[in-house]
Each structure stands twice: as C-alpha cells, then as structure tokens.
Design goal:
Blueprint: H1 33-65, H2 73-97, H3 99-118, H4 123-151, H5 155-186, H6 191-210, H7 226-245, H8 254-274, H9 285-288, H10 290-320, H11 325-354, H12 357-374, H13 383-410, H14 418-455, H15 462-495
Helix pairs in contact: 1-2, 1-4, 1-5, 1-6, 1-10, 2-3, 2-4, 2-7, 2-14, 3-4, 3-6, 5-11, 7-8, 7-14, 10-13, 10-14, 10-15, 11-13, 12-13, 12-15, 14-15
Amino acid sequence: MTEASTTQVTGEDPRLGAGDAAGTPEDPHHAKRWFVLAVIGLAQLMIVLDVTIVNIALPDAQRALNFSNGDRQWIVTAYSLAFGGLLLFGGRLCDLVGRKKIFIAGLVGFAAASLLGGISPNFDVLVTARAIQGAAGALLAPAALSLLTTTFTDAKERAKAFAVFGAIAGSGAAVGLLLGGVLTQYLNWRWTLFINVGLAVVALLGALAFLQAKVEDDGERPTLDLVGTVLVSVGLFAIVYGFSNAESHPWSAPSTWGVLVAGGLLLIGFVWYQTRTTNPLLPLRIVLDRDRGGSFLAMFITGAGMFGVFLFLTYYLQASLGYSPVRTGLAFLPMVGALMVSATVATTMLLPKIGPKFLVGPGMLLAAGGMAWLTGITLQSTYVSNILFPLLLVGLGLGVVFAPAMSSATFGVEPRDAGVASATVNTVQQVGGSIGTALLNTITVSAGTAYVASHVSATATAASLQGVAQVHSYTIAFWVCAGIFAGGSIICSLLIRPGVQVADPNAAPAVHM
C-alpha cells in the first residue's frame, strides 16, 4: 500500500469480522465483557465531561478565586493542553506497560487531580489540578479504546460496544454542559470537579474487579520516544503561553515573541527528530498524506472554534444576559443536538456517496456563517432572536466537518500506525482548542480594553462602559472564529482529494469515536 492511498469508511468496520493481529483472546464471550464495557464507558464519560463541565462553572470560579479575565482561559487550556500534548505518549505507554495498569493509573490520577481542584484555595492550585487531570486523561483515553478493542472480538458484539462507546463520546459534551449548570447552581462550582472523584472510584473498583491483564505476544514492543515527547510538549506549551502572555505584554516584548519563536523552533526540532529516530512518537508518514493532513487540519480548526464558542458564549450568557448556570447549559443543547444529527447524517448517508472533500469544506463555511451571525449580539439580545439559530448553524457545520474528518484521518493508514493515527485525531483537536482559546482570550481582553479607552468621555466613565465593552470583545472573537473557519474551508478543500475513497484491504480500519 502506498501512503497516498488513504481510504474511507463505507459501511461496517472491516475489523469486525477479522481476527486480531496480536492474538485472539482466550474467550471472546467471557461473562465479564459487558461489565468491562460499563467500566470503560464510565471512564470515557469522565474524560469528555471535563471538556465542557467546568466551562459553565468558570464565571463562578472566577468570582470565588478572584482571578483576572486574562487568566481565566488557563482553566480550560491547562486541561486540553496537557491532554493533547501527552496523548500520543499515553498510547505508547499502554503498549509498553500494559493497558490495565495504565487505565488504573489514569483513574487514580484523575481522581486525585479532581479532588485537588475541588478544594483549591487559589487560581494556581486550580490550574495545576486541571493540568494533572489532562495528563491523567491522556493515559485513560488510549487505554480505554485499546481495552474495548481487545475485549470485544465477535463482529456483532464489537459493533454494539463501539456504538455505545461512540454515543458516550458524542453526548458527553451536552451532558457536561447541563450537569455543570446543575451542580454550579444548586451546589457549588467545586462540585464540577468533586463529581469526578465519585465516578473515578466506581470505575476503579470495576477495573479491579473485571479487567484482566492480557499477556501480549512476544513481538517487539515499542520504546518510549522521550525526546520527542519533551520537544512537542514544551513546544506546544510555549506557543500557548506566548499567545496568552500577549494579553498583558505587548507583542514586541521578548516574553511574548521570544516564547512564540522558541515554541516554533521546538516544534520544528520535533519534526526533524521524528525523521531521525527509529521509534518516533508521531511517524510523519501519517500526516504527510494529503487527505489525512487536510483532515487533521480540519480537526485542529474545529477544536479551536468549539472551545472558543463554549468559553465566550458562556460568559456572554451569564455575565451579560444574566443567565443562570442551568439555563446556560440548556442554551447550548440545541447546538450539540444539531452537531450530533449532522455528524450522523454526514457519516452514514453522505460520506459513502460524495467523499470527505465536499463535506469538510462546506461544513466549515456553515460554521463560519454561524459565527458571523453571532456577532450581532448586544446587551439587549434575546435567545430565540439572536442566539438560537446561529448556534444551530454552527452545530450543523461542525458536525458535517467533525465526523467525516475523523474518519478520513484514521482510515487508510497501515495497521502498524492505526493506534497513533487515532491518538493524533484527539491530539490535534485538543491542541487546537488550547491554542485557539489562548489566542481568542488575548484578543477579547485587548479588544475590551481598547474599546473602553476609545470611548471614555465626560459622560461615559470606564465603569459604565464595561458591559458594552465585554460584548464588543466577544463579537471580535466571533469574527476571528468566522475568519478561521472560512480560511480553513479553503485550505482543507484544496488539500483533500475529491471522490469517494475505496478501502484498501491491507490498510487498518478507521476508529469510530
């Protein structure tokens, strides 16, 4: 198979009828398999919950811990950056140490970090806890998917198991938004973190009771690419920190541009090193294919846009319009519902007929249109007139991008690269969210400050302008998101080849999430 022959999902996963290359489990119908699915599903729910559950609680947490608007994005970014930056490393650890051990380590780490975040007395402790949560999630996510794959080997049962797993992954964002609102409004913002302790303990007890450590075959195990892990993790952190630092320091300051340049050089060094090492963390053959490269870029942009709309629209609804946390969570549900519907239709009905090119590009244009529509918000806006329909349009567009891009990015790789390709999908989305959130937060804070400075007069004090300035800053962020989506549509449309891609029988199947 040539690396250019990217394949596409059409119909049932071809893995389901074939034996496992690494050896078939002793009993594919063992009685504990459905309990294993419950444990894995609970862990996956915990991971996806934390992408959104804290967003709804963020305004309350900011008031309680008294941190600035410039710092607020780190509560979101610390989790997504640690998760995305260490995900590939977590996948390698699963292969080296064992899936059960890494799964349990991830659960323990997630529970400990959630407890620390819940009792955090200040901003620094909360950010540290969120970063540890992300690192633990980077262990849990690949371990959970690997355990699911090795536990269910019967064709029909594996199809059911992956359907349940995919439903949890797809609905987790909506559950997180609503649950975050309920916990914040009726208990306390800290319970958006405490709840993970209970979920992790239940999952841990289930893992100890039902998971079995499988003995792998005697094939050569991969070695850990520690140098590559350090280069990419530090490089990504420097990029995110540089964008964040621009909020309080000018772009001309060495602490801003110097950090950004250092981050860029580290990432260039990572790419160079991946071509020299015998066991690269990310084999470049995976991303150099046009279809997969375009799909990874689409996931990166989707992550940046989704994180942006969740963060700034949450603040607009609560701080500007006075929504309660529960009402805020409910306000996002139509967008998530539209995303799930369009993703299902795009994957099952449209993708097998027209291929990814004419879904990803137009989907991004829909999302761009929705973000541009949202720029019409004011302090007098109403949900139905000014927010609902733009949110629906964004959700429809992101769903059309999300599912086809994920399938195209993970389908068609060689079997030896199937795991790392799947991990890369999550990585680029989380990293996109981290960089997008940092950049957009800097833009909004700067725009709000500039608006106040330019409109202060004898009759309009800085205090009286704060509300209008905040809404103005959100509209600037939405315009930037619209531009990012529009530019992404053009680039991805040029990269992804037209036509329906035919599956290569020698290629690894796509992983559905």
